[in-house]
């Protein structure tokens, strides 16, 4: 199917419009939040929180409430648990993350398999963007507005506490609160991304576009815009491949973003492997000629 | 004279060990004080605890006779080089601009005059031509100057610098000490964690000598007497000759 036909289908099918809309929002917010996650050295934490959302989603299903609430609760609890274990024992942060999130994930799997068909589990884990309902779309939009609003309002505080937490603390910013708010935002982003990319691959949408942008600029503000744009491009093209070849949307979206990362990794003007090699070769040749 | 900083019976533990024990001293306004002592003496820890950046076991800290909280925004802290992520996507100018943040309050962005002031501060440390560089592209000394510019941008009354002279070039060291002296003349109070005994006397009016406990606090020439210094550097004594020798930690 050509891109043109994809656009035709887009006008024709409402489910595809909803899918595109949610994917674009997910691309934007994952891109934005991902910048802060990677700069704070919390990539692994992002992975942990996104997985830890699973039992919350399962319990919400069981109670018949919107999975948003359950997800945020188990996500934040896991973040607190990880902090508690690593601060109160010789267990290092990465060990605590490894223990906590796999346990939470396992609890989630047990609950879901006990009560529902494995098809639901499959969709939660890997996403099923073509089945986005109206209510999911509104939740995603709401989370998107909230996340963008928070980052715009607290940009200054996020910048200082990420770059130099000691300075932030010295003039009275509540670093701990900022950390836990960011964890709460992270769980919300995960919830918003459940249907587009699924729990397992959310972390890719958080890290890969942000890391790509990180290779392309020396300014945080630019990095955020770039990262969001890369997120959107990945979502749109990922959706196209998913729809055209009948593949899991999460996988195709993540692959597109990985491809963009590879481009930046090799060809970024300042950081790219290819230019670096070219420049050092040129320097060597010039020295030889002298 | 005005008492800018007063610390009373400060105790700090790290992982269950007491690393700072019973430190009490006070610093007059408009002075330049060096905090010296051997490696692991708790110099940085003491400074961080005094600023409530890490929890303390016990102790009082007063700034101009008031609580630290009231003065927070008027205190500039320059961290150790190792505390900073030098790959962070931020330019030299934007680092200095951070200095204007404390007074801005929530939801407010730096104005044009804030930006002009930040540029002024960058000029003071002689780094204005590097304004658009990423912070990690600079040399150690240049980075330290940029962080000093950030402290200047904060228009602080008290300045706390943690090991600003470690691993930097001579020119940068001279620029920094010159600016610190100017600040002192303007009535500011500056505390510097420092490890190079050879220059301690020429740089600072007062010295605080630590080795977990407080060994001595007083005028520089008084603290640098061999019999005082040996109390702190007892186990490094064999390396130490009276004055002029750099006891690296």
TrEMBL record, chain A:
Its main location: membrane. The keyword Transmembrane applies. InterPro entries: ABC_BtuC-like, ABC_TroCD. Coiled coil: none annotated. Keywords: Membrane, Transmembrane, Transmembrane helix, Transport. It is a multi-pass membrane protein. The keyword Cytoplasm does not apply. The chain crosses the membrane at residues 20-39, 59-85, 97-117, 137-156, 223-241, 247-267. This protein is probably a component of a manganese permease, a binding protein-dependent, ATP-driven transport system. PANTHER family: ABC-TRANSPORTER METAL-BINDING PROTEIN (PTHR30477), IRON TRANSPORT SYSTEM MEMBRANE PROTEIN HI_0360-RELATED (PTHR30477:SF13). This is Manganese transport system membrane protein MntC. It comes from Fictibacillus phosphorivorans. The lineage of its organism: Bacteria, Bacillati, Bacillota, Bacilli, Bacillales.
UniProtKB/TrEMBL annotation, chain B:
SUPFAM superfamilies: P-loop containing nucleoside triphosphate hydrolases (SSF52540). Residues 5-237 form the ABC transporter domain. GO terms for molecular function: ATP binding. Keywords: ATP-binding, Nucleotide-binding, Transport. InterPro entries: AAA+_ATPase, ABC_transporter-like_ATP-bd, ABC_transporter-like_CS, Metal_Ion_Import_ABC, P-loop_NTPase. It comes from the Bacteria. The keyword ATP-binding applies. Gene3D superfamilies: P-loop containing nucleotide triphosphate hydrolases. Belongs to the ABC transporter superfamily. This is Metal ABC transporter ATP-binding protein. The lineage of its organism: Bacteria, Bacillati, Bacillota, Bacilli, Bacillales.
């Amino acid at each position: 199917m050509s891109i043109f036909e994809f656009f035709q289908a887009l006008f024709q099918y409402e489910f595809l419009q909803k899918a595109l809309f949610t994917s674009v929002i997910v691309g934007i917010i994952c891109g934005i939040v991902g910048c802060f996650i990677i700069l704070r050295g919390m990539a692994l934490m992002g992975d942990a929180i996104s997985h830890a959302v699973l039992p919350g989603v399962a319990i919400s299903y069981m109670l018949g409430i919107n999975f948003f609430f359950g997800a945020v609760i188990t996500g934040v609890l896991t973040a607190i648990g990880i902090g508690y274990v690593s601060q109160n024992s010789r267990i290092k942060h990465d060990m605590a993350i490894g223990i906590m999130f796999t346990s939470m994930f396992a609890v989630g799997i047990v609950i879901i398999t006990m009560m529902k068909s494995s098809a639901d589990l499959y969709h939660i884990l890997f996403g099923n963007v073509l089945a986005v309902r109206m209510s999911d779309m509104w939740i995603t939009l709401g989370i998107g507005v909230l996340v963008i609003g928070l980052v715009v309002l607290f940009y200054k505080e996020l910048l200082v506490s990420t770059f130099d937490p000691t300075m932030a603390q010295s003039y009275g910013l509540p670093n701990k609160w900022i950390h836990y708010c960011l964890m709460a935002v992270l769980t919300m982003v995960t919830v918003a991304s459940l249907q587009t990319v699924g729990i397992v691959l959310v972390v890719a949408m958080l890290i890969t576009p942000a890391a790509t942008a990180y290779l392309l600029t020396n300014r945080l503000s630019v990095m955020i815009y770039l990262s969001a744009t890369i997120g959107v491009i990945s979502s749109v093209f990922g959706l196209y491949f998913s729809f055209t070849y009948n593949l899991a949307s999460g996988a195709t979206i993540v692959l597109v973003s990985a491809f963009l990362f590879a481009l930046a990794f090799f060809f970024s003007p300042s950081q790219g492997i290819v230019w670096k090699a070219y420049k050092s070769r040129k320097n060597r040749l010039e020295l030889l000629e002298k | 004279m005005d008492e800018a900083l007063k610390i009373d019976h400060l105790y700090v533990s790290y992982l269950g060990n007491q690393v700072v024990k019973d430190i009490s001293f006070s610093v007059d306004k408009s002075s330049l004080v060096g905090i010296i002592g051997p490696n692991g003496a708790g110099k940085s820890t003491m400074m961080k605890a005094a600023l409530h950046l890490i929890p303390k076991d016990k102790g009082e800290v007063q700034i101009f006779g008031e609580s630290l909280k009231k003065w927070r925004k008027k205190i500039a802290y320059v961290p150790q080089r190792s505390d900073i992520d030098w790959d962070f996507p931020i330019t030299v100018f934007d680092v200095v601009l951070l200095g204007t943040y404390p007074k801005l309050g929530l939801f407010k962005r730096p104005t044009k005059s804030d930006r002009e002031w930040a540029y002024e501060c960058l000029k003071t440390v002689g780094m204005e031509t590097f304004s658009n560089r990423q912070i990690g592209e600079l040399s150690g000394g240049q980075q330290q100057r940029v962080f000093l510019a950030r402290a200047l941008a904060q228009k602080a009354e008290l300045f706390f610098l943690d090991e600003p002279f470690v691993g930097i070039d001579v020119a940068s060291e001279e620029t920094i000490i010159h600016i610190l002296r100017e600040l002192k003349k303007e009535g500011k109070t500056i505390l510097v964690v420092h490890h190079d005994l050879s220059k301690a006397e020429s740089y600072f009016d007062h010295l605080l000598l630590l080795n977990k406990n407080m060994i001595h606090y007083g005028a520089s020439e008084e603290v640098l007497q061999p019999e005082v210094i040996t109390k702190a550097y007892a186990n490094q004594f064999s390396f130490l000759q009276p004055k002029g020798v750099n006891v690296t930690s």
